[in-house]
């Protein structure tokens, strides 16, 4: 064979082998340019007082009921209590007038502190009076026992109507007060642990002085009953007078008769 052809053949085989080796060699991973992750500036915070647990109505606060929590300074409201050396001692011993939930900021206007104050007088709004009326423990005069503290009720009075000698007895029911807040049933001042029925021999109502006089007098002249109002009516205001149309319900032998206008 011609030496030139042999040399060309050898060169071709060598070139093919080199190409095969290059094809089979592992390829280096591509270099990916990674931009540096942006760093966020820390948000300025302040320490504010919050409830460490559920704080129900009437709870006397202790330091264990309160804690400090970091709060963004931009979101700190004027009512929030800032951390200082005296704040915890100042709030401890206060009575809760409206419930707090865990983590909720403490507000001074929802607390009251008075060493000589009873619980009910502490939670009673200014200008209001607490008046207890007698109710049936089985609920016959209080919506079947389903009236709970903080519910709204109407107060009704039932009296025996004047009748001619020999005539059958008749009773008249009239609405004395509307949209009245119930402070307590018996000794219970709030609904706890899923309790839905509270029984007691008294219902304590939140009244103004004129309403208090009306109820005290009505207890001596007839039987008082409570009718439960819808929560949707809570925005309406109480009225110490009769209902607007002055209608009453007459009951004869347990049967409701036509209403009469006074």
Automatic annotation (TrEMBL):
CDD domains: SAF_CpaB_FlgA_like. The gene is cpaB. Coiled coil: none annotated. InterPro entries: Pilus_assmbl_Flp-typ_CpaB, RcpC_dom, SAF. It comes from Lichenifustis flavocetrariae. Residues 46-112 form the SAF domain. This is Flp pilus assembly protein CpaB.
